[in-house]
């Protein structure tokens, strides 16, 4: 049931994307420092989306990797603390 819903949503997004692409096929001129480039508006929008996505991955990728390292370190600390607790529980009680 959920899988069918996901497929329906993806299909709707695909159809919506095709419609946007069809209605935004007008060629536009992109002026940049090295020259000019003429391409359809949807190509420019998709290119910008891909570029921004890659930049976001680069910026957030370092933070994600550092957080994963911290998770590994904290899990190791928990494992060591649990082992120490278990060894303390196994010590015999001294008579006072």
UniProtKB/TrEMBL annotation:
<feature type="domain" description="Lipopolysaccharide assembly protein A">
    <location>
        <begin position="24"/>
        <end position="86"/>
    </location>
</feature>
<dbReference type="InterPro" id="IPR010445">
    <property type="entry name" value="LapA_dom"/>
</dbReference>
<keyword id="KW-1133">Transmembrane helix</keyword>
<keyword id="KW-1003">Cell membrane</keyword>
<feature type="transmembrane region" description="Helical">
    <location>
        <begin position="37"/>
        <end position="65"/>
    </location>
</feature>
<keyword id="KW-0812">Transmembrane</keyword>
<dbReference type="GO" id="GO:0005886">
    <property type="term" value="C:plasma membrane"/>
</dbReference>
<feature type="coiled-coil region">
    <location>
        <begin position="64"/>
        <end position="91"/>
    </location>
</feature>
<keyword id="KW-0472">Membrane</keyword>
<dbReference type="Pfam" id="PF06305">
    <property type="entry name" value="LapA_dom"/>
</dbReference>
<keyword id="KW-0175">Coiled coil</keyword>
<protein>
    <submittedName>
        <fullName>LapA family protein</fullName>
    </submittedName>
</protein>
């Amino acid at each position: 049931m959920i899988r069918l819903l996901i497929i329906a949503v993806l299909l709707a997004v695909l159809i919506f994307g095709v419609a946007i692409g069809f209605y935004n096929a007008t060629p536009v001129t992109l002026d940049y420092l090295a020259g000019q480039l003429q391409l359809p508006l949807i190509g420019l929008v998709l290119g910008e989306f891909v570029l921004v996505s890659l930049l976001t991955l680069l910026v957030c990728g370092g933070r994600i990797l550092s957080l994963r390292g911290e998770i590994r370190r904290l899990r190791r600390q928990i494992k060591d603390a649990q082992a120490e607790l278990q060894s303390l529980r196994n010590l015999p009680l001294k008579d006072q």
